[in-house]
Amino acid sequence: MALGPRLDLRQSQSLTMTPQLQQAIKLLALSNLEIEAFIGDALDNNPLLEAGEISLERQAEPDTREEAPEDPSADQLILRGQGEADAPLDIDVTALDRDRDTGDWSATATLGGGEEGPGIDERGDDEPTLAEHLEAQIGAVSSDHALLFVARHLIGLIDEAGYLSTPLLEVADSLGVPLARVEEALAVVQTLDPTGVGARSLSECLALQAKEADRYDPCMARLIDNLELVARGEFARLKRMCDVDDEDFADMLIELRGYDPKPGMRHGGGERAPVVPDILISGDGDKGWEIALNQATLPRLIVNRPYYVELRSGCVDRGARRWLSERLSEANSLIKALDQRQKTILKVAAEIVKQQEGFFRRGVSHLRPLTMRMVAEAIEMHESTVSRVTSNKYLNCGRGTFELKYFFTSGVASSDGEGAVSAEAVKAQIRALCEAESADDILSDDKLVELLKEKGFDLARRTVAKYREAIGIGSSVQRRRQKKLARVA
Asked: According to the UniProt record, where is the region Disordered (predicted)?
């Protein structure tokens, strides 16, 4: 066979991410607040875009009502902002996914808000951080600039709770100053507000607050020096050590409980993202649920066509005309992507409300097991699309504000064998049982298993322990100590 160059014609197929698809994927995963920032950049970069009162033609259309054809008795879901002509965005690009979620996920609810939800401008004030708060005070404490330099260095080492974890000898070595100088600077820092900041241990933090309140007598000093006995509930031993009667000891415990173990947390530790709902749910379920996007956070964009016509009439250069056409295409693509994003969010939210109607009617104990695959199959979309829609999105209803992923929970087998129940419902029952117990009748994990089985939850003891720890409830021994301490105080 002779070797030589030749030409071959072959056909092949490949999956390519167009700029429009990349933009749609990016927008779908952003929250409304992040969309607002994205729109701000787009307005700066594209002269044909401008903020307007009406961003989508569908806003002038009457509201549509969507009923489940397979269940005529199902509650109506009234969707605000979705027309019939345009279909939601479904990005089925399995080969390109890098962040897929199976949906077996549970998040902690952020309670608050009413049926209408907070507005876009209801954000937390920019509070100074703990370091900034301390820096503002340090200049008025001493006129010794060398001492203030060491004190400012110590402020930079204090964590967000207000504690100094770096050994003073290490600080002295790094600054090249005597240890006594560092101790003197620390004493200056510990005089700053809030009281207790700069402490190297919990005992020192509480002692500083007791001194500030003029309650640091020998009895209180012994109590603070033996906090491990307080945690174990050994009150009889502590009363002997402090040489006080029951009444004085109770007063000391009340005083101790009034101190702040983390004084630095009173001040901002940095930027905190505001939680603003993207979706608003209203109605009581009897007349249907009304599902709407939060109009206060919706981006509003229009293309300034008169300005485009004016610019095009003045363009004599072919390159300028091409640049102007590209800007117009980008503007139209962005508005279309925003429109599709909102339709997709509404469709996913409607299915979540339909699947978790028990939660919206009766509370967390009626949450059903739900995965993203179930929602994706119900609305005939790809699972990755549902994953992006539920990322960084919050839903506000009469029960509070919840992240969309809160409604996706794994299932637990029920004792009657008729189906599975949500893990969140089980956690709610465990929390209710533990909160109702008294100090003299603390429920063990085995007892919790029995009580849950009576309520229809078939769980193993290790599963109950796992859920109990996940919601921050201690063991029976820890709860007994805590309740005894609360009863004495």
From this structure: 96-126
CA distances from 136 to 47, 187, 189, 346, 360 (A): 44, 17, 12, 48, 48
Question: Both 283 and 378 in a single domain?
Answer: yes
Q: Which of 357, 388, 407 is the last residue of a domain?
A: 407
Instruction: Show contacts of 19-22: CB within 8 Å, 24+ apart.
Output: 19/333, 20/333, 20/337, 21/91, 21/93
- The pTM score is 0.52
Last residue of a domain, one of 233, 266, 299: 266
Tens of pLDDT along the chain (489 residues)?
A: 568 888 888 888 877 777 877 888 888 888 777 888 888 888 888 888 888 754 344 443 434 333 434 443 344 566 655 444 445 555 443 433 333 333 333 333 333 333 333 443 444 445 678 888 888 887 766 677 888 888 889 998 998 889 998 899 999 998 888 999 999 999 999 988 888 999 999 999 999 998 888 888 888 899 999 998 888 888 889 888 988 888 888 888 888 888 889 988 877 544 455 678 889 998 776 677 888 888 777 767 888 888 888 888 888 788 888 988 999 999 898 888 888 888 899 999 999 998 888 888 888 777 788 888 889 999 998 888 888 888 888 888 888 888 888 888 766 655 554 456 677 778 888 888 888 888 788 888 888 888 888 877 777 888 888 888 888 888 887 788 777 766 665
Q: In this structure, what are the phi and psi dihedrals at residue 303, rounded to the nearest 5 degrees?
A: -95, 125
